[in-house]
Amino acid sequence: xxxxxDLGGTKxxxxxxxxxxxxxxxxxxxxxxxxxxxxxxxxxxxxxxxEGRLGRTGTIGIAMPGAFSARTGLVKNANSVVLNxxxxxxxxxxxxxxxxxxxxxxxxxxLSEAVDGAAAGASVxxxxxxxxxxxGGLVVDGKVVTGRNRIAGEWGHNPLPWPQPDExxxxxxxxxxxxxxxxxxxxxxLARAYAALTQRTLAAHDIAAAATREADARATxxxxxxxxxxxxxxxxxxxxxxxxxxxxxxxxIDAIYEGLLERIASYxxxxxxxxxxxxARHGDSSGVRGAAWLWPADSSK
Length: 301
Known about the structure:
Shape: globular
Distance between the termini: 15 Å
Number of domains: 2
Order of helices and strands: EEEHEEEHEHEEEHHHHEHEH
Radius of gyration: 19 Å
CATH topology of the largest domain: Nucleotidyltransferase, domain 5
Helix content: 25-40%
Strand order of the largest sheet: 3-2-1-4-7
Number of helices: 9
CATH superfamily of the largest domain: ATPase, nucleotide binding domain
Low-confidence stretches: none
Structural class: alpha/beta
Mean pLDDT: 95
Number of strands: 12
Strand content: 15-25%
CATH class of the largest domain: Alpha Beta
């Protein structure tokens, strides 16, 4: 049995999978926001609770925001800033009394979809989280690619490609730079674009709903799609994936898929585009399922 944990900014979710991917149990609790020790206790309570109910012990994989620094071994780049600078893996292992495997949440999304999701059977999979932040993960031949600096796939903190004059210098990003892809393609970025056009404030999901009846909302989504296409075309030019999988809350907006491949192709450095773009098959469960898949069937490997 494999346990997967998705450590998010607002919720912590656990899933138990059998070796064939069947869901045996799942549960979620609110994240103790700003409470590092409370977060560790919550993960431990979830794991022990599920194992107790099922009467089985499983391997534990955890999807987390950010990554571990190759230099210090501490968490870096997490938008849940209470985790930054902490030895999160070691602290959880000490609390549970056993080994865990941890990966960036976007890497777990990519792994989940490559194993038995929208990109099953594909050799090179790039997965995107479009939500509060904008992350990315890369899986090649069924294995997560983390990179030498453990930042592989972090396309959200590159500048928006082929910027228009009104997109420069771009909004400030929490990473300390301006004009990052994340500042344009996050939920806040979509809301900011609508406000710039209309001087009105709407949340991202309300903009998507309004697009069926309001020209300004439709125009905002068209701008969003063009920015998404530019960002993904730059990924295609570097990685050339078989499949790009979109996850996160904004991936549920149907309008962003209409003509998206053609827009990506217009920016990509190729005479044709064979890459597929798919919505995550497992939806909000992809991160937690991918965390579980961090351990192979033979957990001694």
